[in-house]
Amino acid sequence: MRETAAERWARRIVLTLLALFVLVPLYVMLSSALKPLQDVQGSFTWWPRRPTAQAFVDMWSTVPLGRYLVNSLVVSTVAALFSVTVAIFAAYAVSRYRFRGRGLFSVTVLSTQMFPGILFLLPLFLIYVNLGTATGIQLYASRTGLIITYLTFSLPFSIWMLVGYFDSIPRGLDEAAQVDGAGPLRTLFRVILPTAVPGVVAVAVYAFMTAWGEVLFASVMTDEGSRTLAVGLQGYSTQFNVYWNQVMAASLVVSVPVVAGFLALQRYFVAGLTAGAVR
Amino acid sequence: MSTTTPSRDVAAPERPARRAATPTDRRSPGRRRSLLPYLLLAPAVVLELAIHVVPMLVGAWMSLRELTQFHIRDWSTAPFVGWENYRVVLDVDSAVGAELLHSFGVTVGYTVASVGLSWVLGATAAVLLQRPFRGRGVLRALFLTPYALPVYTAVITWSFLFQRDTGLVNHVLVDQLHLLDDRPFWLIGENSFVALLTVSVWRSWPFAFLCLMAGLQNIPGELYEAAAMDGAGFWRRLRSVTLPMLRPVNLVLVLVLFLWTFNDFNTPYVLFGGSAPEQANLISLHIYRSSFKTWDFGAGSAMSVALLLFLLLVTAGYLLVTNRRRNDA
User: Which chain B residue has the Cα nearest residue A257?
Assistant: First the structure.
């Protein structure tokens, strides 16, 4: 099919506009991070007239960014690892076994996606606080509490995506392993998981991103010591001043690794999404 | 939670049967009675119960109690008030009910506009990137970036763009294009809805793009060739080949976008610093703020449960309608 000249130009114009829509905020993030404070407080300029990396130095002391970063890293990494592990077992069961309650499980797990977070925020808040006073197990304002909460957030989607991956692995492989005497768990670890590595990694990155970006629970369930980046970045706005250059510098630093990881794995996401959606 | 130790006992007696299994044997009755799948599911079920289902039930219980600041310390003994909380929050003549109704209206408008725009932008980009050309990979990665960016960094950046005196939006509109004489406020008053919607679309259209692009890849090229041989132009091919083939993806995509957008808390919370103007006071934020402002968790829970019931109804209706149409076709 040949493209007409009009079609080609329409395509170029529309794609340029979309690219600008996406790019401009990203560009502002970068260019403002390179400006001194006075320049982000005056009227907007496209180009940093006096470029400086000072904001990247100052941002660590204006707020305890290092501590927030560590909190976010610990919470997101541990939540992602647990989430993937739990999802692997569940997805294996859903993909390879027909059992009573299979349909109910899939529906229930997926429907937790639709619940407004606010619905279980208040009860969970009270449960965590009371558990602390009753048993001494500190879940409120602790990283453990956040980890447990977050690992369930990514779980439904992780299971869904992994079922899609596992379904695409031919059952002949399972059966060959079983003929060699491998039990179900051995089959999972020796045959299915090695084949599904890209999917497992994509799911892990997804779980990490979910935890890294969560705001609602982070703002209620943390204190100064356990605060994550999601809440911590708001510390650059004081009553009198907003350190926009430092906010942008910090945003850049916490975004680049996540975005890079996602872009590197995006084609596995696409595969997982189609596997799930078409079913 | 140990899944390995008990499963070994369960799996062992079964193994001979499995060894003889053929592919169609997966539905055999002996297999179905196995405990193994349940053990594999147990961790996921326990976690979902602990963090989603039990708190939800507790929330429903809370919504029937007088759970104000006087009872919150010892909330398990809060007095039972029956439907009183629901009566207060759903009574549109009361101040609480009127605010909730207003916030609900804002949320519906926000959701419809955001999902619609996100779908249009996502579909446009997906269709235009179907044909290979130089720079396609770069554009594809670029378009996905807003989806990968952590919510709060994206929204904080936009709140900088929308600043009245130092932001890019007013600089472009007022100083460069001279479209406006006055510098408008974007994060206060009527414009705040536009600002909120812009940020929301910026963040969610890449997800539509991602799903639709995946859907397009599944359409066999022969369909297009056949359509082109029949003399179908661009629009005709779009209408007769692309859209029908994308239907399964669209059904899921629209539902997921709808639920995410309707429950959106992050965008207004970060954009407005927690106190959203009334024109942009989405329902999640409204429930959060009114609960923690008055410490009336009973009323907050009643609003949450009402919201969930609404979402369940809409989802059930949506699935019914789309399924029926699929069966008719």
Answer: B149
Please check whether residue B206 is in contact with residue A29, taking contact to mean a CB–CB distance below 8 angstroms.
no
pLDDT for residue B328 is more than 80: no
pLDDT band at residue B15 using 50, 70 and 90 as cut-offs: very low
State the Cα–Cα distance between residues B196 and A33, nearest whole angstrom: 23
- The pTM of this model reads 0.88
Q: Chain A within 8 Å of B294 (Cβ-Cβ)? A: no
Tracing tokens 């403002």 back to the chain, one arrives at A32
Q: Which residues of chain A have pLDDT under 50?
A: 277-279
Name the closest residue on chain B to residue A184, using Cα atoms: B11
**CB proximity under 8 Å: B 26-85 to A:** 26-27, 31-32, 34, 36-38, 40-41, 43-45, 47-48, 50-56, 58-59, 62, 72, 75-76
- In 3D, which of A244, A257, A264 has the Cα closest to residue A30? A244
A26 vs A41: CA distance, rounded Å: 19
Residues 40-69 of A with CB under 8 A from B: 40-44
CB neighbours of A12 closer than 8 A, spacing ≥ 6?
A: none
**Band of the pLDDT at B39, cuts 50, 70, 90?**
very high
- The predicted-structure confidence for B116-145, as pLDDT tens digits, reads as follows 999 999 999 999 998 888 899 999 999 999
Q: Residues with Cβ < 8 Å from B275, sequence gap 6 or more?
A: B289
- Are A244 and B307 in contact (CB < 8 Å)? no
Is A197 in contact with B45 (CB distance < 8 Å)?
A: no
DSSP state of B242: I
